[in-house]
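We were asked to recover a plausible sequence for a given structure. The inputs and outputs are reproduced exactly as logged, with field labels preserved.

PROBLEM: sequence recovery
POSITIONS: 734
GIVEN STRUCTURE:
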């Protein structure tokens, strides 16, 4: 790589370094013709006159770079390494000519030194990418254009002499195509997972698999015309008469004239009108870019001498002068027109200044006004002051418990630490706690940022830089002011009568006579106001820093930046607290709904139990009524037998049934199971269950059980067992 660079530096062919150092250049580049092994005779046309390559060497002769000529070769399908050869010798002589050598080396596609570059092209990468890789590795990029099926030695020279050279295949005529001048991505930067890696992997980089009309494609994107067609078409137009092209004379540097012509072609005014505008310093018809272009192509001292000499050589007389100017290029015509302007450089500078002054001043004054508003807002905000006081109170209570040595103030930087400090729960920050206190005590303080809206934008204001820019602008204004004043005084010399200006008049009187002068008066007044604002903002900033107890030398962007950061963190913490409160409220609502459901569920259970007991009580009442009705029917039969017994007793004059009752009872007990009416009456009159209610019910139930446990005759036990004996009514069921 270093040797090839040295070749290029010395104007030598760097491809020489790829040849065999043990053999001569004549043998490897010129063959070994003749039996004596002497150098072959160059019988072909020199490269500079070769029809196939002459135009590329002509490009070099016209001053174009070697890279441009090689790019043209690549575009036309030629070997760009030809440009490194000697233009005074033929290609055949330098590349081997008819003395073709036998190819005994490995093909380039298998050559360990060059195989990877041909593999890149085989994978679908463009030849330019392979050439760049060659340059990167210090190889000759022309290798890429050689035949990959042949060795480097056979194509660049060397090897044993062959008996007969193979016929050289005719090269296809290059096809002129339309180009898409896109920027391609280097293969080494294409990731396999990227869209281009996937497309390349799938092989979808050609139109082979697409359905399209090849004829239509070639008609649209390839030039199908023959070389002579355009000339014939040009000759046929205009009745076959060839229009004579005017001869153009160039006085200044050709490249400068060409570039100037491009810029000046965009100016729609005649050059005489341009001269008039410049003399009046009226730039209303031009933007800043056009003014810069017009100023750039003002004639320099050498060009002024050359142009004046050209005009003097044209001869005397206006007609000859105009004829000489007519054959000049656009740039030279403009330069000659500007020779009539006095101090054109200063006037163009003044015109340019005038066109951009308002914009430049606004870019300085607007941030100053913003900083002034921010200083005023932070001092006048009641909410910010209350919030700072609340921070101080909470901070003192956290640090000292509300007693001991309490802080009387804190720096603004401490505001940023509120988000960093956390409670022992490792979750709640001091800033979040502050917001909870604010919401409970004075919720309006949460909107304090609305009082200091200008602070966030003022953070980007660099007061020192603004002061420097204002100083530069004031200096430019002073220069333009002096030029405008000088021009106004020159113009006032020609004024007479009422328009005349006394020699001892003030500057304003002169400036009032020209449009540029009036502009300068207004511009100077605006500059004075801006300078006053610049001084005022420094005073207001110092006042605001003192208000917060900060160092008055603190930069404005640091001061406003700290407040802006606090506002951002406060909003973030406020959002977090609000979301936590919303979650808590939602959970509370859900808990209340669950409690309400449980309450209703219990009430429903109580109602159900009461209804069940009521239904049971009603059922027992119905059962007792049914039993009582059955007992009533049984009472009627014993009463009849009793009446008969009474009749018998009365007939026998025996005292009442009290004496006979035991007998009856005895007979009944000893009988076959007949019921006694007296016993049934006693049973019917016996209490049926305990009294309703609490302890009394429990006592009654115990007495009833004791009575039932006494030994009685079987019929009585049976009847007693038939009596209803449910649980006592009362207690929980009641």
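RECOVERED SEQUENCE:
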């Amino acid at each position: 790589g270093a040797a090839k660079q040295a070749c290029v530096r010395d104007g030598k062919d760097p491809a020489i370094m790829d040849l065999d150092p043990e053999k001569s250049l004549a043998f490897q580049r010129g063959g070994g013709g003749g039996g004596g092994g002497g150098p072959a005779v160059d019988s072909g046309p020199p490269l500079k006159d070769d029809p196939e390559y002459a135009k590329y060497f002509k490009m070099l002769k016209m001053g174009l770079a070697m890279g441009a000529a090689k790019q043209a070769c690549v575009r036309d399908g030629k070997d760009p390494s030809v440009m490194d050869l000697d233009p005074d010798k033929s290609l055949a002589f330098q590349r081997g000519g008819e003395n073709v050598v036998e190819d005994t080396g490995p093909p380039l596609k298998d050559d360990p030194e060059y195989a990877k570059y041909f593999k890149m092209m085989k994978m679908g990468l463009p030849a330019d990418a392979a050439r760049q890789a060659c340059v990167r590795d210090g190889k000759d990029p022309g290798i890429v254009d050689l035949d990959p099926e042949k060795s480097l030695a056979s194509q660049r020279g060397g090897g044993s002499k062959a008996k007969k050279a193979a016929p050289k295949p005719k090269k296809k005529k290059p096809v002129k195509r339309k180009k898409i001048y896109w920027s391609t991505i280097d293969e080494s930067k294409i990731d396999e997972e990227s869209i281009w890696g996937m497309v390349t992997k799938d092989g979808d980089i050609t139109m082979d698999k697409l359905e399209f009309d090849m004829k239509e494609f070639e008609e649209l994107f390839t030039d199908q015309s023959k070389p002579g067609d355009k000339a014939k078409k040009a000759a046929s137009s205009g009745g076959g008469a060839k229009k004579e092209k005017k001869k153009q004379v160039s006085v200044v540097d050709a490249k400068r004239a060409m570039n100037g012509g491009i810029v000046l072609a965009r100016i729609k005014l005649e050059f005489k009108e341009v001269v008039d505008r410049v003399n009046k310093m009226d730039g209303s018809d031009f933007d800043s870019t056009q003014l810069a272009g017009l100023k750039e192509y003002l004639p320099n001292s050498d060009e002024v001498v050359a142009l004046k000499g050209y005009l003097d050589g044209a001869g005397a007389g206006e007609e000859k002068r105009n004829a000489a100017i007519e054959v000049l290029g656009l740039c030279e015509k403009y330069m000659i027109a500007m020779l009539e302007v006095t101090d054109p450089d200063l006037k163009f500078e003044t015109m340019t200044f005038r066109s951009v002054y308002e914009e430049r001043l606004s870019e300085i004054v607007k941030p100053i006004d913003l900083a002034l508003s921010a200083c005023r807002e932070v001092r006048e905000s009641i909410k910010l002051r209350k919030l700072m006081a609340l921070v101080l109170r909470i901070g003192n209570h956290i640090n000292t418990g509300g007693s001991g040595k309490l802080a009387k103030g804190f720096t603004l930087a401490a505001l940023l630490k509120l988000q960093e400090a956390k409670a022992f729960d490792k979750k709640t920050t001091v800033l979040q706690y502050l917001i909870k206190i604010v919401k409970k005590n004075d919720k309006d303080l949460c909107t304090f940022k609305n009082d200091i809206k200008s602070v966030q934008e003022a953070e980007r204001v660099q007061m020192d830089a603004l002061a420097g820019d204002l100083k530069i602008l004031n200096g430019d204004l002073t220069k333009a002011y002096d030029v405008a004043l000088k021009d106004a005084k020159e113009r006032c010399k020609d004024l007479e009568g009422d328009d005349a200006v006394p020699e001892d008049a003030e500057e304003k009187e002169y400036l009032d006579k020209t449009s540029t002068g009036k502009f300068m008066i207004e511009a100077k007044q605006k500059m004075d106001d801006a300078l006053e604002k610049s001084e005022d903002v420094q005073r207001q900033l110092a006042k605001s820093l003192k208000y917060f107890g900060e160092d008055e030398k603190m930069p404005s962007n640091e001061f406003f930046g700290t407040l802006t950061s606090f506002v951002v963190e406060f909003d973030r913490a406020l959002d977090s607290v609000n979301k936590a409160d919303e979650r808590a409220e939602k959970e509370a609502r859900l808990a209340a709904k669950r409690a309400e459901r449980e309450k209703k569920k219990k009430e429903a259970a109580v109602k159900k139990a009461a209804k069940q007991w009521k239904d049971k009580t009603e059922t027992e009442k119905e059962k007792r009524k049914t039993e009582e009705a059955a007992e009533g029917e049984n009472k009627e039969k014993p009463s009849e037998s009793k009446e008969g017994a009474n009749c018998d007793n009365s007939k026998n004059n025996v005292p009442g049934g009290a004496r006979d009752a035991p007998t009856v009872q005895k007979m009944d007990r000893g009988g076959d199971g007949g019921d006694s009416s007296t016993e049934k009456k006693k049973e019917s009159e016996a209490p049926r269950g305990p009294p309703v209610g609490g302890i009394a019910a429990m006592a009654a139930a115990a007495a009833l059980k004791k009575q039932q446990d006494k030994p009685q005759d079987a019929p009585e036990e049976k009847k007693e067992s038939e009596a209803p004996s449910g649980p006592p009514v009362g207690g929980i069921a009641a």
